[in-house]
């Protein structure tokens, strides 16, 4: 249950095994929501629907489409792009425009078929968008909890680093 | 802004250093220790260990995020990889892997007829390697099985081997490859560091590539830059250089830079450009400086860096332990390839792994989630291999401007036949090793790492930008000290060699200043 997951995450983040800078970053991310500012409502609807198929998640819980919109609105880059690609925002717009206009309401199988087609047609924009969504997904504290990832609880250090040599807080974190 | 509250800069220092990474920092300390008045300008901010989060996204500020354009058949990604920004440069996020180059890395052309020889050899660098390893505190084995002669053992015992390292150790033993704990510039026991205080032993937090939160890793801010400041060097952070100042005679006289939104200038007797193999040629090309050879921006190189990943039954927790714990250099020379490579085990942080998997395999949907959910069982191994210089690999200025209004660099990179053969050789070997380790869902990520070349050193002013000690052939007052100057890529990670070169260039500059005083 999401409420229980969130409570477990918050308890871990407020615990003594997490350093203050790590706690600040992860607590802010746990509850981050974004207002759509960059994409049009129609583009954003396409983006959100595509994001759910590409990196399955609950948008009410993890605002991955909003994260992309927010970055583009703020003009942040990840430091590079393929020279033969359009700037990120334009490349993503072209990708979303290449999906069927009714993409958001298609059956899941038809959505996946449309996504496979744009992965072939616009491989670099597809790769960049996928990587960006994956980053948002994996860096979210709820995902960490569900995957049993405890690397952020490192304030006491890790005296044992061999295979299967887990500290209690590692073995117990996650579901 | 912190930068605005700082006082005026010292007027007309003897030497102005641009960049505080592995090229600029040891030199800055050496010059300050020699009594010279020195100032360093660093585009990025200070990142003291206490402010470092165990989170890759939160640590994006360690990287150069102004957009660069990746062109060619094997485009090199930047940002989270292959860039650095901050007081300490890319050593803030290096994994601290510090193997020495081998004597034969410097003589590839003599030995094979291909590549380019360095204007000096291993014997010239050996005392500097010793000095750097002792000062920054490298942890390594008592007896290192490969490479040139060592006169001094590593200062500290090796760091513990994590899961991937132990798998690689076992698999290599099966096929008769020798392995050793790697040399890593993170402390296996505490060390007193001049100008900083006591640096603690490594806690095996495997987030080196997102910055060290304890000071155990020898990033330059806690080592050479602390020493430099102790001896009076002034380090100005948040100061991005936009141009070099020149006089009517063509001599470089200082730099123009932007700090806290304001443009400033600083004049200096000598300028040392140490901004790295992307920003150094980018700056020079904008003014066509030091370029009578036409070599600025040319011969861009990036190491062969193919990685092989797999899932194992064991719970490995790849976020623990120094990422590159184990090494083999039995592949330093391999049949059918010019040059060679080293093999290393790989720990990995979760976002890095996940985004590489998505980019490298194109997997999405439930299959993606299923794979990523097994992150704790991920085992990695990779290589670092030499790369020949080619005319088709170069950096140029594009017509696109970045957010600061400066032309974006466009970097062309395509592996040659030699790098493709080396990559294939390495991938086959690592797939075999990982099969022996019992890994499933094995996949390979072809990849190039590090930025090298673009302002090469050499004896001949018609084919090189700087002379063998670091002075620009054709531009008085300008020296260059960073990985842009490497004539060839070497079959090892560049940071340790760069630090050794930095001390060597500093000694030459001190001698030069004395002679011309």
UniProtKB/TrEMBL annotation, chain A:
Name of the protein in question: Gluconate 2-dehydrogenase subunit 3 family protein
From TrEMBL, chain B:
Alphabetical list of SUPFAM superfamilies matching this protein: FAD-linked reductases, C-terminal domain, FAD/NAD(P)-binding domain
Domain Glucose-methanol-choline oxidoreductase N-terminal stretches: 83-304
Q: Output the InterPro entries linked to this UniProt entry.
A: FAD/NAD-bd_sf (IPR036188), GMC_OxRdtase_N (IPR000172), GMC_OxRtase_C (IPR007867)
Q: Which UniProt keywords apply?
A: FAD, Flavoprotein, Oxidoreductase
Superkingdom of the organism of origin: Bacteria
Pfam families, alphabetized = GMC_oxred_C, GMC_oxred_N
Q: Which residues form the Glucose-methanol-choline oxidoreductase C-terminal domain?
A: 389-501
Check the record and name the PANTHER family matching this protein.
Answer: LONG-CHAIN-ALCOHOL OXIDASE
Q: Which family does it belong to?
A: Belongs to the GMC oxidoreductase family.
Q: What is this protein called?
A: Uncharacterized protein
Species of provenance: Deinococcus radiotolerans
């Amino acid at each position: 249950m999401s409420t229980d997951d969130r409570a477990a995450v918050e308890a871990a983040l407020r615990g003594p095994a997490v350093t203050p800078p790590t706690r600040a970053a992860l607590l802010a991310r746990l509850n981050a929501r974004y207002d759509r500012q960059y994409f049009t409502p129609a583009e954003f609807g396409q983006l959100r629907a595509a994001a759910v198929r590409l990196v399955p998640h609950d948008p009410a819980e993890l605002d991955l489409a909003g994260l992309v919109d927010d970055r583009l609105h703020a003009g942040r880059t990840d430091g590079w792009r393929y020279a033969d690609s359009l700037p990120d925002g334009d490349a993503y717009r072209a990708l979303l425009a290449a999906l069927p206009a009714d993409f958001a309401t298609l059956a899941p199988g038809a959505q996946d078929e449309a996504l496979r087609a744009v992965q072939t047609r616009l491989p670099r924009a597809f790769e960049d968008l996928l990587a960006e969504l994956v980053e948002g997904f994996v860096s979210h504290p709820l995902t960490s909890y569900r995957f049993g990832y405890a690397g952020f609880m490192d304030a006491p250090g890790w005296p044992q680093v061999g295979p299967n040599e887990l500290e209690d807080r590692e073995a117990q974190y996650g579901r | 802004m912190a930068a605005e509250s700082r006082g005026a800069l010292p007027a007309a220092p003897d030497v102005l250093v641009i960049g505080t990474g592995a090229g600029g920092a040891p030199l800055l300390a050496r010059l300050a220790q020699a009594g010279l008045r020195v100032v360093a300008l660093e585009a990025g901010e200070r990142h003291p260990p206490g402010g470092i989060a165990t989170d890759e996204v939160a640590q994006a500020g360690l990287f150069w995020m102004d957009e660069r354009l990746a062109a060619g058949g094997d485009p090199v990604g930047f940002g989270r990889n292959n860039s650095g920004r901050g007081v300490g440069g890319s050593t803030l996020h290096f994994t601290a892997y510090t193997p020495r180059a081998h004597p034969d890395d410097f003589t590839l052309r003599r030995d094979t007829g291909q590549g380019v020889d360095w204007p000096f050899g291993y014997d010239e660098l050996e005392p500097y390697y010793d000095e750097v390893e002792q000062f920054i505190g490298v942890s390594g084995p008592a007896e290192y099985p490969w490479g040139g002669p060592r006169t001094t053992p590593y200062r500290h015992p090796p760091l513990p081997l994590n899961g991937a390292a132990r798998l690689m150790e076992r698999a290599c033993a099966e096929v008769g490859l020798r392995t050793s704990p790697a040399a890593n510039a993170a402390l296996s026991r505490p060390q007193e560091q001049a100008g900083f205080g006591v640096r603690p032993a490594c806690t095996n937090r495997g987030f080196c590539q997102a910055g060290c939160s304890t000071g155990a890793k020898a990033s330059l801010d806690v080592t050479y830059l602390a020493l430099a400041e102790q001896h009076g060097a002034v380090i100005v952070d948040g100061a991005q250089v936009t141009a070099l100042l020149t006089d009517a005679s063509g001599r470089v006289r200082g730099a123009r830079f932007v700090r806290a939104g304001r443009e400033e200038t600083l004049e200096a007797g000598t300028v040392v450009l140490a901004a790295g193999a992307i920003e150094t040629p980018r700056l020079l090309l904008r003014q066509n400086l030091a370029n009578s050879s036409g070599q600025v921006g040319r011969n861009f190189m990036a190491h062969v860096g193919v990685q092989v990943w797999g899932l194992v039954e064991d719970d490995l927790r790849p976020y623990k332990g120094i990422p590159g714990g184990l090494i083999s250099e039995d592949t330093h020379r391999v049949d059918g390839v010019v040059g060679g490579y080293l093999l290393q085990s790989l720990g990995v942080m979760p976002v890095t792994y996940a985004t590489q998997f998505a980019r490298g395999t194109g997997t999405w949907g439930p299959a993606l989630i299923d794979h990523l959910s097994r992150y704790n069982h991920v085992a990695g191994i990779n290589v670092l291999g030499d790369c020949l210089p080619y005319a088709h690999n170069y950096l140029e200025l594009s017509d696109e401007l970045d957010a600061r209004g400066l032309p974006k660099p466009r970097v062309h990179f395509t592996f040659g036949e030699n790098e493709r053969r080396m990559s294939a050789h390495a991938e086959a070997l690592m797939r075999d090793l990982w099969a022996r380790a019992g890994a499933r869902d094995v996949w390979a990520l072809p990849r190039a790492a590090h930025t090298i070349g673009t302002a090469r050193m050499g004896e001949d002013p018609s084919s090189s930008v700087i002379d063998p000690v670091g002075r620009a052939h054709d531009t008085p007052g300008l020296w260059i000290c960073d990985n842009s100057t490497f004539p060839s890529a070497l079959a090892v990670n560049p940071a340790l060699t760069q630090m050794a070169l930095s001390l060597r260039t500093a000694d030459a500059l001190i001698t030069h200043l004395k002679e011309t005083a």
